Task: structure prediction
Amino acid sequence: MNELKEIRAEDLLFTNEIEDDRTNTYLSLDDYDWMSYKLRTRFKTKEQGILDVEFEYFGLVSSQMTVKQTLDDEIIEYTYEYNTDIFQKHITIFLQNHIKAWDSTYAFNGEDEVINFFNEVLHEGFSREDFYREMPKERA
Result:
């Protein structure tokens, strides 16, 4: 299985097309019957291809990051579980910086925040595949 690697801002590829001229982020906070907070983005890189990333908190001790990687016409999906404290930390930073940007002449895009979030999940979280690979066969 191909392993995801850290992202650096220098790794990102852009065109001058709308929606592809910078990192875009999409935040949704739903509190209907159950909490569902999601932060989505897309990283386009030469080495790792296109990474569609979603961080999600759903009211539990752990949160999850799902990544759909498109590389060389192949799509690989990853799911990482991580402590919700990581979600809380990064969503707080994201929102604080977003609010600070309200008075700026430039739109907030959250690139640094989602890169840092992604990299921390890679280091501190675990992939579901790794979890099941290490689980005793009789329990998997």
Notes: The first strand starts at residue 25 and ends at 31. The chain is about 25% helix and 35% strand. Confidence is low (pLDDT under 50) at residues 131-137.
